[in-house]
Amino acid sequence: MFLVETTLPYVSRCNNKQHYSFTNSTNPPHSAFLPYGRTFFHRPTGRFCDGRLVIDFLAEALGFSFLPPFYGSKSGKWEKFQQGANFAVAGATALSSSFLAEQGIHSVATNISLGVEVNSFKHLLPSICSSSSNCKELLRNSLIVMGEIGGNDYNHAFMQGENIENIQQLVPLVVDIISSSINELIELGAMTFLVPGTFPIGCSPSLLTTFHGSERDQYDPLTGCLTWLNRFSQHHNGLLRKELENIRSLHPQINIIYVDYYKAAMRFYHSPKQFGFKETLKACCGIGGLYNYDPLIFCGYPQLKQCCDDPSSYISWDGIHYTEAANNWLAHTVFEESMSTIPSLGSLCPSSSVNKLRILYPMFGV
What we know:
Protein name: SGNH hydrolase-type esterase domain-containing protein
Family: Belongs to the 'GDSL' lipolytic enzyme family.
Strand content: 5-15%
GO molecular function, one term: hydrolase activity, acting on ester bonds
Low-confidence stretches: 1-24, 352-357, 362-366
InterPro entries: GDSL, SGNH_hydro_sf, SGNH_plant_lipase-like
Helix content: 25-40%
Number of helices: 12
Keywords: Glycoprotein, Hydrolase, Signal
């Protein structure tokens, strides 16, 4: 279930910041190259961003160091996961790659899916707790951040030309695998979940480029986003919220906090100046076209090293992922809003016990 931000690196500590070493030098991801990481780390860290991700800001707010990634870690170095782990992999999907391939949907980034991540977590668990009862106690005192997951299932399909009717049939399947994964973790002893919805994909430079030339009435006149794609995001989020209510009714003792990434991100597009953004729909690191995005020339590879002068004035970093500035606002919104939910993150993680909290973070498909 859980995963790292990237597919290849292992992590080592250096002045409380993470430095990633890429274990496959013959075919590293484009996040292994500058200008990725330029804003905060001043070097590539494997994050698909100019700096920190939402989970980095959340970890900092709760008093933790950045979470070490599970994938790519050297065998026998399990002690680094005693305070938490990140199982996210860029490009990961909720549904298995084999199932998606049967539907004609392929991922060139990774074959990691939610089921693979669940099994990876099970593999890690015995190494950080000595018995079944200890593992249950560890999970009882853990915050598990489920995603965002599912976005790549849809993005791959849209980018590869699948029609909307076929892609809509994936939504209940994606929600079901998220639900079953949460239930599986509950059986292991997990008690507290932060579950984000998906982002407004109609505002993504990559999909705006893919569907460039759509009829004028398909664009939101206030934001320039494609309304039908955003309705798709809301459809996923609506089904997910209903399923989370079902889980709550079956497990009333379990704490599930839904995080409305869609609502939080749409604030950027409706009131960009309020958040310091000057460019809402163009990629900072990109080239060509109305949205500064070319699906054949990725940010970071030799043919595309340049980027905008001020990433903090852009919402989108590379046409697919957000800038550190946008991630910072998302994390701030998540943290503030989760304090007013029932249950609230504050009530579940009071400051007096924050150092006892482990964060197990499945940042899927970042």
